[in-house]
C-alpha cells in the first residue's frame, strides 16, 4: 500500500478572492499564489458574483471582503456555506468593527484578517483555513475580548494572524455556561480553540476520533452554539487558552 500523499503530490488549494476594488482583488490574488500549493480559481467583484462563482468553481478557501455592493460579504458567506458547508471562508478587510467580526463568525467564517497582512502570512492563513484552523489577527482577538477597542475604519499594521485564538493569560473570567462542562469537555474545548482536528485531539487525549466528536457535539449543545469557531471565541473570552 502506498502512504499518504506528500506535499508535492497534493493538489493545490483552490482559492477564490472576493473584493469590490479591482486593484485589491488582483493584489490579493497575486499574494495568495506566492507558493505553488495554492491556486486562485476565481475572482469576484461582489457577493452576488461570489455566490455564483463558488457554485461553478468549488473553491476550498474563499478570501471574502465584507463591505461590498449588491450582496455584502457576510450574506455571501452564509449563502456559500449553505450550498457547501465544506468551504472555508476567511474574512479579509480593512475594518475591524466588533459587530462585523461577530456576525462573520456567526455565519461560519473560520477567520477574520486585515488586508495589511504579509504575503507569506496570507499563504499560511490559506493553508490553515483549508485545514479548518480558526484564525484571528491579534487586533481582532483583542476586539472580541474588549468591544470598546473596535475601530470602524482602516486599521494599522496588525501583525501575523494567530492560529490559536490567544486571549492572553490572566485571571479566569466568570465561566457562566462553561460551568456545565465536565473537566474532560473543557480539555476538548481548549484543544478545539487551538485549532486541532478531532483526530489530533484524540491523539492528544488518548481518545478515539468518534469519542472526541461526541464530546464536541455535547460542548456545542451545552454552550448553545453551532460551530467550532464560536467555541474558540468563547474559550478565548473566558481565558481558557
How would you describe this structure to a colleague?
- The chain is α/β, with parallel strands linked by helices and 241 residues long.
- The protein folds into 2 domains: 13-149, Response regulator (Rossmann fold), CATH 3.40.50; 176-237, Winged helix-like DNA-binding domain superfamily/Winged helix DNA-binding domain (Arc Repressor Mutant, subunit A, Orthogonal Bundle).
- The protein has 10 helices and 6 strands.
- The protein starts with 12 loop residues before the first strand and ends with a helix.
- Mean pLDDT is 78; it is low at 149-159 and 162-175.
Short description:
The chain is of the alpha/beta class and 241 residues long.
Estimate the helix proportion, in percent.
Answer: 40-55%
Rounded to the nearest angstrom, the radius of gyration is: 18 Å
- Record field, number of beta strands: 6
Structural class: alpha/beta
Helix and strand run: EHEHEHEHEHEHHHHH
- The helix count comes to 10
Mean pLDDT over all positions: 78
Distance between the termini: 40 Å
